[in-house]
Write a structure and sequence with these properties.
Layout lengths: L2 E12 L2 E13 L3 E6 L5 H8 L7 E4 L2 E4 L2 E2 L5 H7 L4 E4 L13 H13 L3 H14 L5 H5 L8 H13 L5 E5 L7 H18 L2 E6 L2 H7 L2 E6 L2 E7 L9 H8 L23
Parallel strand pairs: 3-9, 3-10, 7-8, 8-9
Antiparallel strand pairs: 1-2, 1-4, 1-5, 5-6, 10-11
Length: about 280
């Protein structure tokens, strides 16, 4: 079991009081693909960041269990977390232009990720970086390695981020809206690439997304979150026939080319869902 989260609660103190954003989330993940879907603000990214201990120090985190491969994240030191972050668990963020260093070449950044966790000479690391860029299906990887982030497209930048996360051979890949800034065609290419690499390397995948059909196609299981709660968890293949009214509401609000509607329905929310 790579990830074991039981009754996770995340809150923030502010001048106006205390706000709890995640309210008792429980999830487990092995070497499989788990999708977390829900609206913005439902607590998807907070849950993933808590697992990597990447939340601000003033954040209040409580859980019956918050473990990565048996390691208790709640009591793990920063030194222990550095052996997990990047090395054993890679984190792909939403938009590469905010994650890549604009004044360093792409090759040097991927090589740095390699050397940090595997050591070796600068020359060996650069060759490894070029090989990784080739693995994520970048044409002419040597030319791209010599380029700066502003010289490549959004889709190529996301491939670079994936290469950086794969450099240390992680056991878990967390992808937080990895295709949100890309057009539909590039989205499909990036997700197929992630799926291939996860399957080939035998990794676990935690995919955070707003896109229900996408998650139902690429994942094994899906957890549906709303207002800090997991509404339901089911097989991805069963997502389109989900029974919970919140999941049904999300599905009904989606436009369809096969069954066009003059007006999309508004999701009706029931306070009973949060009890």
């Amino acid at each position: 079991m790579l990830v074991d989260i039981q009754n996770l609660k995340i809150g923030f103190k502010s001048r106006t009081g205390f706000h709890q954003a995640v309210k008792g989330v429980s999830l487990k993940l092995g070497t499989e693909k788990l999708g977390i879907v829900g609206e913005s603000g439902s607590g998807k990214s907070l849950t993933a960041r808590a697992l990597m201990k990447l939340l601000p120090t003033q954040t209040v985190i409580e859980a019956d269990k918050l473990e990565f491969d048996g390691i208790d994240i709640r009591s793990a030191s920063e030194k222990q977390m550095r052996t997990i972050r990047g090395k054993r668990a890679g984190f792909i963020l939403q938009d590469p232009k905010y994650s890549l260093n604009p004044v360093k070449t792409i090759g040097s950044q991927v090589a740095e990720a390699w050397r940090t966790h595997k050591g070796g000479s600068k020359r060996a690391a650069l060759e490894a970086a070029i090989n990784l860029l080739e693995q994520v299906k970048i044409r002419d990887p040597r030319k791209v390695a010599a380029s700066y982030p502003h010289e490549v497209s959004g889709g190529m930048g996301q491939r670079v981020m994936i290469a950086m996360m794969l450099a240390p051979d992680p056991e878990l890949l967390i992808a937080d809206e990895p295709t949100s800034a890309l057009d539909a065609t590039v989205q499909a290419e990036i997700l197929r690439l992630i799926e291939e690499l996860v399957s080939e390397r035998g990794m676990g995948l935690l995919l955070i997304s707003h896109d229900l059909p996408l998650v139902s196609h690429f994942c094994d299981r899906v957890a549906v979150m709303y207002a800090g709660h997991v509404m339901e968890e089911l097989k991805a293949s069963d997502l389109l026939s989900a029974q919970h009214p919140y999941t049904r509401g999300l599905l009904n609000c989606m436009p369809s080319l096969m069954h066009p509607k003059e007006r999309l329905p508004v999701l009706t929310r029931d306070p009973e869902w949060l009890k």
